[in-house]
Write a structure and sequence with these properties.
Strand content: 5-15%
Structural class: alpha+beta
Order of helices and strands: EHEH
Distance between the termini: 40 Å
Largest sheet: 2 strands, parallel
Shape: flat
Strand order of the largest sheet: 1-2
Radius of gyration: 17 Å
């Protein structure tokens, strides 16, 4: 697999936000079809050696994903407003 770095003023054909199950697949398909694709990913790059066989860690303890306590989802309904955490979020 190859990658490249784009310059800030460079135009790309597609931008994919998130390289999860869907984002990674569509980015690969688009790039193999000859399009330039930029993928934004929040988390670190992980290889197979970074994982272990521990369902509890990954399913319940947020071993791979962001913890809702340390990185909660925030929302706003207008770009001029500040993002706020919903009242029902974990604190």
């Amino acid at each position: 697999m190859s990658g490249r770095t784009f310059k800030p003023d460079e135009t790309v054909d597609f931008v994919v936000v998130g390289s999860g199950a869907s984002g990674g697949v569509i980015a690969r398909e688009l790039s193999q079809s000859g399009f330039t694709v930029l993928v934004f990913e929040q988390g670190p790059r992980m290889d197979s050696g970074d994982f272990e066989h521990d369902e509890l860690k990954y399913q319940l303890l947020h071993g791979i994903t962001n913890s809702p306590e340390t990185s909660p989802q925030t929302f706003r309904d207008d770009s001029t407003k500040a993002a706020v955490r919903p009242d029902h979020a974990i604190r």
